[in-house]
């Protein structure tokens, strides 16, 4: 008998997550605790519940630039090895508690050197935290594999150094590279040397594109930079035509949208975050279902769990409620994510065949 599809039952489903920012997913109590330890007095609230509310409401800004402003507080408490270790370990525990079985969590090392740490020291602390979090989760009966993406800020000039960092740590838990930050005025092609370095070393990378800026950003990420995946990419809908009299009918893809579909370039879609930044007006207006119907490779992601007050279960539940998805649909989206992960093929297949499909089969009945 099929298990009813509710938020509670979705929490039991195995999940694969590709787009989650470490500095956007701290526990509010941890932010308060570390701030007290390091003497950071800039928090807008010191009660964890009040702080959580502040992050959520401030982030719901309708602008990517304003959405990014609250990160100054989380980054401020992530400047020591102990803090980075703790945040990373708790991140893994929180994901595992939501039945995430595979996750790629990203962070920007250049944001965590104000206390004098090197890029390598920052990355060592985060990876050690991930490993400890995996051990804690396993001890609690929740196996999870977490890998890391190192991110360069697109407005800065450190992307080549961060790409080199990714390669130095590629056998220690870093599986890829990313650029992030405000898109307008900072095209991905400015970082070509970093992407060329990654390709020269047969390494994988994703690019934030098509969130706050349109098709040119996506085009550059694919045609010039050679991205393996796209962070967000919701503005690809500018290259998709739907009959206004039959919105649920056939769709026509332009050349850029067609190449994303044909090359199976994954879209790391983050529904709640996309509403907060103004990329879309509401979940009901989110193009997730349109893109899924057009057979682009869509994946479900959290982006920033603290800022959006979300989890993978919440993202899956709101999409299921809005678009009428069932267990088979949710399984397909999780398999999409695992197919698109930056770990080796045999490891991806093992998680799909030995974890995701069997556990979904129990829910389907």
TrEMBL record:
<keyword id="KW-0546">Nucleotide metabolism</keyword>
<dbReference type="Pfam" id="PF00962">
    <property type="entry name" value="A_deaminase"/>
</dbReference>
<feature type="binding site">
    <location>
        <position position="21"/>
    </location>
    <ligand>
        <name>Zn(2+)</name>
    </ligand>
</feature>
<feature type="binding site">
    <location>
        <position position="23"/>
    </location>
    <ligand>
        <name>substrate</name>
    </ligand>
</feature>
<feature type="binding site">
    <location>
        <position position="208"/>
    </location>
    <ligand>
        <name>Zn(2+)</name>
    </ligand>
</feature>
<dbReference type="GO" id="GO:0009168">
    <property type="term" value="P:purine ribonucleoside monophosphate biosynthetic process"/>
</dbReference>
<dbReference type="InterPro" id="IPR032466">
    <property type="entry name" value="Metal_Hydrolase"/>
</dbReference>
<dbReference type="InterPro" id="IPR028893">
    <property type="entry name" value="A_deaminase"/>
</dbReference>
<feature type="binding site">
    <location>
        <position position="19"/>
    </location>
    <ligand>
        <name>Zn(2+)</name>
    </ligand>
</feature>
<dbReference type="GO" id="GO:0008270">
    <property type="term" value="F:zinc ion binding"/>
</dbReference>
<comment type="similarity">
    <text>Belongs to the metallo-dependent hydrolases superfamily. Adenosine and AMP deaminases family. Adenosine deaminase subfamily.</text>
</comment>
<feature type="active site" description="Proton donor">
    <location>
        <position position="211"/>
    </location>
</feature>
<dbReference type="InterPro" id="IPR006330">
    <property type="entry name" value="Ado/ade_deaminase"/>
</dbReference>
<feature type="domain" description="Adenosine deaminase">
    <location>
        <begin position="14"/>
        <end position="357"/>
    </location>
</feature>
<keyword id="KW-0862">Zinc</keyword>
<dbReference type="GO" id="GO:0009117">
    <property type="term" value="P:nucleotide metabolic process"/>
</dbReference>
<keyword id="KW-0378">Hydrolase</keyword>
<dbReference type="InterPro" id="IPR001365">
    <property type="entry name" value="A_deaminase_dom"/>
</dbReference>
<feature type="binding site">
    <location>
        <position position="303"/>
    </location>
    <ligand>
        <name>Zn(2+)</name>
    </ligand>
</feature>
<feature type="site" description="Important for catalytic activity">
    <location>
        <position position="232"/>
    </location>
</feature>
<dbReference type="GO" id="GO:0046103">
    <property type="term" value="P:inosine biosynthetic process"/>
</dbReference>
<feature type="binding site">
    <location>
        <position position="21"/>
    </location>
    <ligand>
        <name>substrate</name>
    </ligand>
</feature>
<dbReference type="GO" id="GO:0006154">
    <property type="term" value="P:adenosine catabolic process"/>
</dbReference>
<comment type="function">
    <text>Catalyzes the hydrolytic deamination of adenosine and 2-deoxyadenosine.</text>
</comment>
<dbReference type="GO" id="GO:0043103">
    <property type="term" value="P:hypoxanthine salvage"/>
</dbReference>
<dbReference type="GO" id="GO:0005829">
    <property type="term" value="C:cytosol"/>
</dbReference>
<keyword id="KW-0479">Metal-binding</keyword>
<dbReference type="GO" id="GO:0046936">
    <property type="term" value="F:2'-deoxyadenosine deaminase activity"/>
</dbReference>
<protein>
    <recommendedName>
        <fullName>Adenosine deaminase</fullName>
        <ecNumber>3.5.4.4</ecNumber>
    </recommendedName>
</protein>
<feature type="binding site">
    <location>
        <position position="181"/>
    </location>
    <ligand>
        <name>substrate</name>
    </ligand>
</feature>
<dbReference type="GO" id="GO:0004000">
    <property type="term" value="F:adenosine deaminase activity"/>
</dbReference>
């Amino acid at each position: 008998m099929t298990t009813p599809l509710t938020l509670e039952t979705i929490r039991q489903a195995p999940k694969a997550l590709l787009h989650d920012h470490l500095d956007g997913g701290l526990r509010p109590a941890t932010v308060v605790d570390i701030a007290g330890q390091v003497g950071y007095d800039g928090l807008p609230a010191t009660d964890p519940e009040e702080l959580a509310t502040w992050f959520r409401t401030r982030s719901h800004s309708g602008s990517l630039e304003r959405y990014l402003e609250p990160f100054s507080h989380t980054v401020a408490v992530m400047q020591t090895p102990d803090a980075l270790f703790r945040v990373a370990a708790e991140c893994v525990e929180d994901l595992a508690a939501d039945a995430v079985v595979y996750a790629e969590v990203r962070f920007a090392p250049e944001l965590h050197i104000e206390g004098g740490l090197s890029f390598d020291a920052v990355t060592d602390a985060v990876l050690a935290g991930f490993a400890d979090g995996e051990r804690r989760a396993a001890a609690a009966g929740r196996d999870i594999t977490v890998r890391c993406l190192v991110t360069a800020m697109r407005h800065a000039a450190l992307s080549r150094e961060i790409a080199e960092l990714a390669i130095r740590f590629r056998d220690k838990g870093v599986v890829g590279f990313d650029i992030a930050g405000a898109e307008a005025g900072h095209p991905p092609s400015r970082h070509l040397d970093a992407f060329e370095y990654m390709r020269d070393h047969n390494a994988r990378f994703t690019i934030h594109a098509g969130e706050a800026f349109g098709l040119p950003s996506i085009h550059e990420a694919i045609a010039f930079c050679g991205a393996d995946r796209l962070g967000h990419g919701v503005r690809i809908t500018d290259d998709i035509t739907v009959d206004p009299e039959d919105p649920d009918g056939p769709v026509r893809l332009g050349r850029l949208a067609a190449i994303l579909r044909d090359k199976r370039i994954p879209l790391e879609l983050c529904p709640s975050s996309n509403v907060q930044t103004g990329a879309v007006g509401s979940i009901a207006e989110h193009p997730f279902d349109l893109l899924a119907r057009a057979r682009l490779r869509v994946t479900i992601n959290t982006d920033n769990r603290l800022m959006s007050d979300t989890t993978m279960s919440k993202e899956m539940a709101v999409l299921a409620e809005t678009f009428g998805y069932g267990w088979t649909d949710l399984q397909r989206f999780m398999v999409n994510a695992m197919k698109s992960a930056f770990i080796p093929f045999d490891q991806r297949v093992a998680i799909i065949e030995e974890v995701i499909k069997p556990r979904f089969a129990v829910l389907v009945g």
